[in-house]
């Protein structure tokens, strides 16, 4: 990012492409937010200084004892009110996100509605979150009691900002924590609008907003008065946060990068498999945590699969003109597009072929075409690292065993998908793939309440589901024995 400061410390909470500039009015540094569809400016948001970061944490810390003592049912009731407010404002939140990130309006609206639903779920789950009674002595009572941590810092991303923030904030406040929330520097106005809706129904200080770049996130993550840091974003940032928290003793909850594989087995309908692959690779322009990042297809169905996948890629366009076309928004900014294209260019230089896409389009904005690469090798960046763009790299394998073995390689462990008619192969896949989530015969989907733990470089801890309430609390063991009676002389 560009700054007018002569020097800035290294950041740990995000490397911003949102431009930092000096405000013409007060000389204060601000985030200049641009629309990635056309490059136009859509707002300027002040960056919090060190004193403001300290004040935000102090406000949340002061509010915590009173909030923790409020009846859990009352906390749930207030969170229900917040859920209703977010649901009523879903269209407005989606429009703000659409302008800031370029996400198609329908997808942004679905994310906002999912956020409201998530708040409502935690409003119900929070008051029934329970501890355990232990089998102690007959005359004693022994308990394991969940207690809130205190001040939670939530550092949330730009690709699904409302839904993810609602999950972390909802689970934290309903269990008695207070929260300092820093939305991504790429969509600060979305985060501010969401926080305003939630904050209106909560006591002062329970939810505090802080905006800024990676330096602000670093100050929050390493703050001595923060007890838990929850971060959804890149692996590099997550590692830096973990290092900062190791110095303060704060707990860290991370959902970070992924390089999710898709296995296409022999015997599946190749056209259907290509539809699944396209949804996984191109939805939100490939900017989802669990996007399909690499594809292993059995040689027996490879030709038909690739042909159908290319056809699916051609349907993804910036401005649909007919029912056969599907809107695909831009990447979040030009910097992200440069990173995506660097992965594609590396693959082509190393022998891959782009059957569709693979070129940076002319004109304003950060658009990048849906791209299908073939002849991909394991050592290419698109097969080893998270590309986070609308790129589908395909590697043909001789049998399912080879595909499974190669899919299991790598430092990430977020999710994987297997398309197969074989129960034996499905069983082997979910047993052997070292990831937190395995989906069989569906790229997206799953029952409500599922909660996965990412592995390796993809993070640590439950990031959603009922188990997130466990992450937001720590257990205290209590032993209550009978009083000792004094002897009478």
TrEMBL record:
Residues 28-478 form the Aldehyde dehydrogenase domain. Keywords: Oxidoreductase. InterPro entries: Ald_DH/histidinol_DH, Ald_DH_C, Ald_DH_N, Aldehyde_DH_dom. The keyword Zinc does not apply. Pfam families: Aldedh. Transmembrane segments: none annotated. This is Acyl-CoA reductase.
């Amino acid at each position: 990012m560009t700054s007018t400061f002569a020097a800035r410390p290294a950041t740990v909470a995000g490397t911003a492409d949102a431009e930092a500039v000096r405000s013409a009015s007060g000389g204060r540094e601000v985030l200049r937010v641009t629309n990635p569809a056309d490059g136009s400016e859509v707002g300027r948001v002040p960056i919090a200084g060190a004193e403001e970061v300290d004040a935000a944490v102090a406000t949340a810390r002061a509010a915590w004892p009173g909030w923790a003592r409020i009846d859990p049912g009352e906390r749930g009731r207030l969170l229900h009110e917040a859920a209703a407010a977010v649901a009523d404002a879903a269209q407005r939140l989606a429009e703000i996100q659409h302008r800031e990130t370029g996400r198609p309006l329908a997808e942004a609206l679905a994310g906002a509605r999912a956020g409201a639903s998530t708040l409502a779920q935690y409003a119900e789950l929070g008051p029934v979150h329970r501890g355990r009674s232990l089998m102690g002595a007959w005359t004693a009572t022994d308990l394991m009691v969940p207690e809130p941590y205190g001040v939670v810092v939530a550092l949330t991303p730009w690709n699904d900002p409302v839904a993810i923030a609602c999950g972390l904030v909802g689970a934290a406040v309903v269990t008695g924590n207070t929260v300092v929330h820093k939305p991504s520097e790429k969509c600060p106005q979305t985060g501010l609008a969401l926080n305003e809706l939630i904050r209106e129904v909560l006591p002062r200080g329970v939810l505090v907003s802080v905006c800024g770049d990676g330096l602000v996130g670093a100050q929050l993550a390493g703050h001595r008065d923060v007890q838990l840091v929850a971060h959804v974003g890149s692996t590099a940032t997550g590692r830096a946060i973990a290092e900062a928290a190791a110095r303060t003793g704060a707990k860290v909850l991370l959902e970070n990068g992924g390089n999710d594989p898709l296995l296409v087995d022999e015997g599946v309908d190749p056209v259907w498999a290509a539809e699944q692959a396209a949804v996984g690779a191109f939805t939100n322009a490939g900017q989802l945590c669990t996007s399909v990042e690499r594809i292993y297809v059995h040689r027996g169905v490879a030709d038909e699969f690739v042909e159908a996948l290319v056809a699916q890629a051609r349907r993804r366009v910036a401005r649909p003109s007919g029912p056969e076309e599907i809107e695909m928004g831009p990447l979040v900014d030009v910097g992200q597009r440069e990173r995506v294209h660097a992965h594609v260019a590396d693959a082509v230089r190393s022998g891959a072929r782009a059957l569709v896409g693979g070129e940076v389009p002319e004109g304003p904005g950060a658009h990048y075409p849906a791209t299908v690469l073939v002849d991909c090798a394991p050592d290419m960046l698109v097969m080893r690292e998270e590309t986070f763009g609308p790129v589908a790299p395909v590697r043909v394998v001789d049998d399912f065993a080879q595909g499974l073995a190669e899919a299991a390689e790598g430092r990430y462990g977020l999710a994987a998908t297997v398309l197969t008619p074989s129960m034996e192969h499905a069983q082997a896949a979910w047993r052997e793939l070292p990831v937190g989530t395995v989906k069989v015969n569906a790229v997206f989907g799953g029952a409500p309440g599922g909660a996965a733990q990412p592995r390796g470089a993809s993070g640590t801890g439950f990031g959603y589901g009922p188990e997130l309430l466990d992450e937001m609390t720590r257990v205290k063991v209590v032993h209550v024995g009978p009083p000792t009676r004094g002897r009478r002389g």
